[in-house]
Amino acid sequence: MIKIVRASVAMSIQDLGRPGYSQAGHCRSGAMDRASHLAASTLAGATASSATIEMGPGPCTIDVLAPTTIAFAGAPRRGAPWWTTLQVSAGDSFEMSACIEGVWSYLGLAGGVAAPMIMGSRSACVREGIGRWLTSGDSILSMGPATEPQDHDPLTMKGPVRVYGQMESSVAVGPRTDRMGYELKGDFVAGGEELSEPVAPGFVQALPSGDAIALMSEAPTLGGYPTLGIVHPDDLRLIAQATAGQHLQFVKDE
Amino acid sequence: MPFDCRAERLSPYFVRLLFEGDINPSLTRYLVEISKRLAQIEDIKEVTHGYRTLLVETTLPPEEVRDCVGRILPLESLEEAIQVHELEVDYDGPDLKFVAAHLGCSVEEVIIRHAGNYHVVALGSPGFIYLSLTRELTVPRLDTPRRRVPPGAVGIAGKQTGIYGSERPGGWRIIGNCATFPPMQPGNEVRFHPA
Fold it and tell me: Which of B16, B50, B78 is the last residue of a domain?
């Protein structure tokens, strides 16, 4: 068992999300950086369907209340070993800095993080009233049983983003970013008004202002702005890990 | 197939089906039915319907997805009794004056044109109710979406209208507010009455 002494911004329990419920008006949700989330599970000894703790920007402190195995992955922070399996004991404490690079970090727990399964997923989606943001003082339990921890290579937080469509260029990330979408600053041609169309995480839509929005884990199920392109699902994490002002290189992959 | 469609690949992971036909409750019910049945196919991860389209998350070839649709026999529910929701709207939204100015008519005229009958096309996340198209009320969306739109807000965008079911960001022009609204399903009818 671990205790959150100081919660980061936008700290929540996440897994791979809840596909199959868009008809009922539920977004996919799930980890913003799926590969890092899976790495945290793998390193800590949890299955691919397990949940981890997603830590948003800003410092974060956790205390260990009972011996277990944990792992940190994703956007690295000072104050804890990263990308490695950690056997921890009661009294251990990790006082972590804000992210050194990237935005989203993951804390994996042996056996997976305990949380109620709602529509096939343990992911919080606060805007839909599913789960909640974690706060200072929350205790986190393991689901169990644990699996054998496996090594996992560190993942890069930066790189070219493969996209299908018409947006091959260098684009700066704007200040408006959350689990629903990331603003992309640019001079995109918006095109005409259209009927709202089904959309999904990875769709990039042009706003009339000339900027665009990359739809992320909590993408709406329908969107009305014209779609410029669709990001390769494995590269969506690179947008998620980009900070305001950072330039993303979009490359055509067709 | 009661409604013909063509299939196109959007990316290696998404296929879109475009259906012919007017936007009416029968088409909506057909799309809901097809979505549920397609979602049971192993190689299809997610299916989302819109006004005339289905977005299918799959690596299957577009023709194969279209063939799957052709093999689905729709249930008789397409013609079942329509559930009706009577909703009172306070037409006092922050964009009402903009809409009137944009259309070159009075605020009262906007209300007259908007009030009336629609059907629920789809449910959005989080808690958005997409309704069928307005008559003579076409307005552009906001250049930059609002960060927060309150629940119950009634908006228009392009030819569409809808209800914000929970607080969320949004780019629709807000012309009114429903104090209360019941849970709704695609295919249901909605009647807006000025409060």
Answer: B78
